[in-house]
Amino acid sequence: MSTFPTLVTLESPLLVAYSGGLDSTVLLHWLQRSAQASGTPLRAVHVHHGLQASADDWVQHCQKQCDAMGIALAVHRVQVDTGAGLGLEAAARQARRAAFAAELREGETLALAQHQDDQAETFLLRALRGSGIDGLAAMAEDSLLHGHRLWRPLLHTARSALRDYAHHHALRWIEDPSNGEDHADRNFLRLHVLPLLRQRWPHAATALAGSAAHCAQTRTLLDEEDAELIAHLEVAPRVLSLELLRQVSPARGARVLRAWVRAHGAAPLPATVLRQLQQELLDAPSDRQAQVRWQDHAIQQWRGHAYLLPALLPALPADWQAAWDGRASLPLPDGGQLRLLGCEAFERPLQVRARQGGERILLPGRTHSHALKDCLQREHLAPWRRAQLPLLFDGGQLLAAADVVVSAPLQAWLLAHDAQLQWRPGGW
Asked: How would residue 1 be classed by pLDDT, with cut points 50, 70 and 90?
């Protein structure tokens, strides 16, 4: 006999995802009772996908139910991008998540209604796609969505318990007609595969969800080891030592690369891109400047290191220039900025512009000027950084290349005024 959890103590404001179906109706009702007992604020959000003819009726139903419970309801109308190659289900999920992220307020937790049967279906789907431990861990009870807690409090509760709860409390919900169609993989499992498995193994869903939980425990242990290894391999933010990475086994290195990319908010590494990385970066000479790109990011090899970069690298327009007196930070066209710290302003405005090539600069302690190109190579400034480098001029005299190379005259002035330049490149 399946059981439904008792009321829970809530410690933060909740935003409940409410589709109007059985699962989210039960979740909203149960959490509303918990919120009243805890004195915790609670709101609901409904995402209107526009994929069903009765979608407007669903909005009215959700509004009516929320009004009856005294719950504020936010409705988001979204456009599901069916041309992105994700498939309808994945595209709708992506649109929902974007709507949830847009609606969440500071300090709120997002509550979703997935339950044990959903977890069993997810485990089977991932297994049929050949997923490893990370995929077989399926859904987490606690995770993050754009810095907010994402909570699935019913993940260990069977669907039958939700239905019993709904009948006991005389709840009203919507039956989505698409749930009875089996063309979607998840629906096929729900309608045909799991009922057949239950005929032979009555606790099939519980067992599958339990396997997902075991995989999640293993993933947690591996994640902890990944974090320790990345701390050893990452010599600077978004920069990995290839020499150290090559000392790790290929399987471990692949996992570390995935974790490193994920930790910096980049899109997951597809298997094909990961193989390309291992072939072109790890197996290539250290002096080669190989690059691998996927979606909005790239990994660039340069001087024995792997750099995680935007796929479209920012650069200063060749004809860009600006006057700057140092009183306020200077915004740069690539999204970066220049600041003068420790001093109110320069004695007179300086000109700031992009590199043109052929510039020369007089360095401290030298009697003749040096080619800026040679100075930047000695500073080990990566080529993509050089394309962003703002140059400071006083008339025709080059005073500095951002805060990377500073001339003798400007260095003396900065020391005399206890000041310094600070450059923050744009783009990442």
From this structure: very low
